[in-house]
Amino acid sequence: MYRLELQGVGKRYGRLHVFRDLVAEVEIGQVLVVAGRNGSGKSTLLRIIAGLARPTWGQVLFYRDGRLLSPEERRRQIGLVAVDVSLYGELTGWENLAFFARLHGRPLTPKEGEGLLKEVGLAGRGDDLVQNYSSGMCQRLKYACALLHRPALLLLDEPGANLDEAGRAIVEEVIARQRRHGLVVLATNDVREVAYGDVVLRLGGGG
Length: 207
What we know:
5-stranded parallel β-sheet; globular; 4-stranded antiparallel β-sheet; alpha/beta
């Protein structure tokens, strides 16, 4: 049983308040949507939840079976798909997967790799260099890398970026599967993606 809580979370850069006093709670099977226009702080909030940035105020709490996980334990439970997640163009899709698997301290069998590539619509493309992938294919590979360790908490920043309708259908399937064993936090300004949310947190600031 997993539960994520945002307790009075705020972020300030100098005199600029990006957001403040954010409160939300979601548990296993649910999707938290962070909605707002560009510059409202959506990506910043996802980075705070991921432990990649510190809030100026408040705290992010993640529980498993009622036990509060440490920030390091929480990071091990996270899968992240975001624009600033880098892939290695000089490596193949399969080699990128194997690299990220090693970062998680686990081996990746060919069967697992092929299964992940098929899951995101890249079946048969694992031996191609990523530098020859389209932007949509790169986005799909980011999903495969994020799902390697079957994270309890899946963070998606603009999940439909660079994806066609077939790619968006895959995102819907990923979210549906994630609900069965974990939870999702999704940042978007796309009304279609806002509809995924069980809880919607709207950010109104700019900058």
